[in-house]
Amino acid sequence: MIRHSLVIPAYNEARLLPRLLDTVRTACGRYKLGAEAVEVILADNDSTDATPALAGAWGCRVVHVPERRIAAARNGGARKARGEVLMFVDADSRIHPETFNAVDDALARPRVVGGATGVTLERWSLGLTVTYLAFLPLVILTGMDTGVVFCRRVDFALIGGYDERLDFAEDVAFLWALRKLGTGRGQKLARLRHVKAVASTRKFDRHGDWHYFTKLAPTCLPALLRRPCRCDFARRYWYPDNR
Predict the structure, then answer these.
(1) How far is CA 120 from the centre of its chain?
(2) Domain count for the chain
(3) Is residue 243 part of a domain?
(4) 72 with 182: CB under 8 angstroms?
(5) 180 is in which domain, residue-wise?
(6) Treating both helix axes as pointing N-terminal to C-terminal, what angle do 70-79 and 170-183 enclose, rounded to 10 degrees?
(7) Lower CB count within 10 Å: N or C terminus of the chain?
(8) Are 65 and 58 contacting, i.e. CB atoms less than 8 angstroms apart?
(9) 3-state class (DSSP) for residue 185
(10) What is the pLDDT of residues 36-82, one digit of tens each?
């Protein structure tokens, strides 16, 4: 029986996907219910490189999602999932070896509606550290984190999955909806900080270590306040063609 469905949205990720899949293989090998209780779904967002072939050769279920929107890719993968628990991780990340065990332990607690593992970064600098610390109070206050996001499949359906009207911040909107669902039932989001994922810094490599303050916030925050979110910088930032 499938317990976990790990959904990986991906567009032209042939370069970085293998390192994620290596960590997934390790985590599957450490999972107490056995590797066969985990399915890995590659939600291919219309890649033009070897991403789907590479994922298929590894053993992923490959789901083609032609609409270039991260929310659509996440939902497309989730629609094909067979697991009781849905998990989502970016293709340029790496996961902790105990991820699946930690998620099971968290969801075994009745007061947990879902959550995320949080992340550490693959490199650090002053700009990256300040950016990380700037988000930390909000994360602590709301319980909403990033990394590997997880919830029960039934609850994913109840909140309608990810909002496909959004070009960006769909992950924030999803966790906010999950948090609201849990609050009504006396549940909360869990932060599994002992199994943090490793997040890629490639956007910082490309746009600069301070770009959250100089580019992202000034451009995208006004758009975020006008839902659905649309802005040219967001499209260039989250949907580049040159990966």
Answers:
(1) 14
(2) 1
(3) no
(4) no
(5) 4-238
(6) 50
(7) N
(8) no
(9) coil
(10) 999 999 999 999 999 999 999 999 999 999 999 999 999 999 999 99
In a domain, 223, yes or no: yes
Phi-psi region of 24 (alpha: psi -120 to 50; beta: other; left: phi over 0): alpha
Q: How far apart are CA 169 and CA 88, in angstroms?
A: 14
CB 71 within 8 A of CB 160: no
Instruction: Give dist(CA 36, CA 1) in Å, integer.
Output: 8
Q: Judge contact between 153 and 81, C-beta under 8 A.
A: yes
Terminal Cα-to-Cα distance of the chain (whole angstroms): 36
Put simply, whether the predicted model's pTM sits higher than 0.90 gets the answer: yes
Q: Quote the CA–CA distance of 229 and 223 in Å, as a whole number.
A: 5
CA dihedral angle for residue 10, residue 11, residue 16, residue 17, rounded to 10 degrees: 40
Q: Is residue 177 a part of any domain in this protein?
A: yes
Q: What is the CATH number of the domain that holds 179?
A: 3.90.550.10
Q: Which residue has the tokens 């999955």?
A: 161
What is d(CA 152, CA 172) in angstroms, rounded to the nearest whole number? Answer: 17
